[in-house]
Each structure stands twice: as C-alpha cells, then as structure tokens.
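Before surveying the methods themselves, let us examine one representative protein, written as a sequence plus integers encoding its fold.
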Amino acid sequence: LTEYRFNTGKAVHFFCSVCGIYTFHQRRSNPDQYGVNVACIENVSPFDFACVEVNDGVTHPSDGGSSGVVGYLRYEPETLPPVETGGKNI
C-alpha cells in the first residue's frame, strides 16, 4: 500500500501501489476512526447499502462546521419479470 497525505497531513490515505484503488484512510477529525472502501472487503458490495451520503469533496466538518453533505445515493434493486425459458433450465 502507498500512503498519501495532503493539506494538514493529519489524515492518512492508503492506495494500492499496483492498481491505484483507494483502500482506507485514518480520519483527520477523529484519528481513532478509519474509513474503508467497502469494495475492498470480501463478501461486501457497495450495493449492500440502501442509502449513502454524498459529500462535496471540499468541505470538511472540522474546517467550519458544515457537514459537506450535498445529497444521498440510493440503491433500489430492480425487480425483473420472470424469463420464459420454454421449460428448459438455463
């Protein structure tokens, strides 16, 4: 893993040095907490979460009180109609 710090240098971000995926970070606002990319965890999918906050990527709660939340991503699985197979197993 490759470590990356920016701005104040307090938050520590880690990326795979081979493929570049963000894996996790140690939070600046609370160094005892970590943010983890769920796509890096076996048997967990981003689609397992029905609603996820979307941040503006600029505002940080520690910088002035604003949450930076600009919306929410919602996942609703589509219910597909049954497929006619003519009695054949597919």
Summary: The longest strand covers residues 69-74. The mean pLDDT is 84.
